Amino acid sequence: MIPSSFEYFAPKTVQEALGLLAKYPDDAKVLAGGHSLIPQMKLRLAAPGVLVDIGRISGLSYIREDAGKLSIGATTTHHALESSALVKKKCALLSETAAEIGDVQVRNRGTIGGSLAHADPAADWPAAILALEAELKLTGPSGERRLKAEDFFVDMLATALSPNELLTEIGVPALPQRTGCAYLKMRQKASGFAIVGVAVRVTVDSNQVCQQIGIGITGVASKAYRPRSVENALKGQKLDRALIASSASKAAQGVDALADLHASAEYRVHLAGVYTRRAIETALARVK
Ligand code: FAD
Asked: According to a count of CB atoms within 10 Å of the terminal CB, is the N or C end of the chain lower?
């Protein structure tokens, strides 16, 4: 289908983009990679009168190491994160997650900021961002604010972003020694979206006692979440297969699981347990 007509702007700076969002408060939509918004527009599920294309703002696409943490500009593509040597060295969970997204065309155009702002309940990035306890920088007319990933995702396709704000940067803390990470997913065969996807970051001491753990689960509920009951059952404990299995079985505890033509709610709950167990075991095996 053909989208309804719209005005198109390609600002060169963040300030210019914010000015356009302020000028068209009820009608403007930010365009990044366009790989979620354009399909929505073609299906007439979205009909913005104004598109503010942030893809030409050169200062929004970068991967930097600042004081141990990785800072990622919002328009950095999935492919850039998948292929960056710095990311592979400092936080391979990001490269692993990026490589799981869609296909090569999607990864070449789609951006991490667009994916997080879109908040699709089956998107891959939210799981990794939650597991890593990343911080999101939002820039609006009155300046910047920083939110924990957990406070950013509100509901299905809903985030803490105001219509006049841009997500500008994702900050990923440095990983301590003896940390292992993994992202495992069951993909929907046609699109690649997660039926269930689980990201794990675990730090253990030399006796395999869990010092820190972050788990992010996508695909199961209306928004990606951290299964706190699993994390709490493992933190401070010596990690063995039996404890991991019994804790992982709580991965969808208290969650209202989604059901659609790809998977029933019961199946998603089952997969959440299985993938959480496997992702923890894989992360643990990667501890160096
Ligand atoms: P856009 O489509 O341009 O924007 C998406 C939304 O976010 C819009 O509402 C827009 O206004 C808003 N927005 C964008 N950037 C910002 C910003 N910086 N600040 C504020 N608001 C912003 N995703 C997966 O996770 N896993 C998959 O397996 C997967 N498979 C896919 C397969 C296909 C065939 C397609 C078409 C898409 C797939 N995707 C998948 C989605 C893909 O990752 C998109 O790139 C991503 O969801 C949106 O990023 P974008 O840069 O394209 O954003």
From this structure: C
CA of 249 to the centre of ligand 1 (A): 31
Query: Is 276 in contact with 198 (CB distance < 8 Å)?
Result: yes
Provide the 3-class DSSP secondary structure of residue 96: helix
Q: What is the pLDDT of residue 27?
A: 93
Among 42, 44, 134, smallest CA distance to 81 is for 134
| Residue 126, burial from CB neighbour count under 10 angstroms (0-12, 13-18, 19+) | buried
CA-to-CA distance for 72 and 137, rounded, in angstroms? 10
**Which residue, judged by its Cα, is nearest atom 15 of ligand 1?**
114
What is the spatial distance between Cα 64 and Cα 54, in angstroms, rounded to a whole number?
20
Cβ(76) to ligand 1 under 6 A? no
Q: Which residues of the chain have pLDDT under 70?
A: none
- Residue 36 Cα to ligand 1 middle (Å): 4
Is the Cβ–Cβ distance between 227 and 127 less than 8 Å? no
CB 198, CB 100: distance < 8 Å: no
**Around Cβ 208, how many Cβ atoms within 10 Å?**
13
Q: Residue 71 carries which DSSP code? A: E
Domains of the chain, first to last: 7-56 (3.30.43.10), 58-172 (3.30.465.10), 179-285 (3.30.390.50)
The confidence score (pLDDT) of residue 12 equals: 97
Mutational test site, ligand 1, from 40, 78, 118, max ligand atoms within 8 Å of CB: 118
Q: What per-residue confidence (pLDDT) applies to 66?
A: 86
Q: How far is CA 58 from the centre of its chain?
A: 22
What local confidence, expressed as pLDDT, does residue 1 receive? 77
pLDDT of residue 13: 97
Q: Are 71 and 81 in contact (CB under 8 A)?
A: no
pTM above 0.70, yes or no: yes
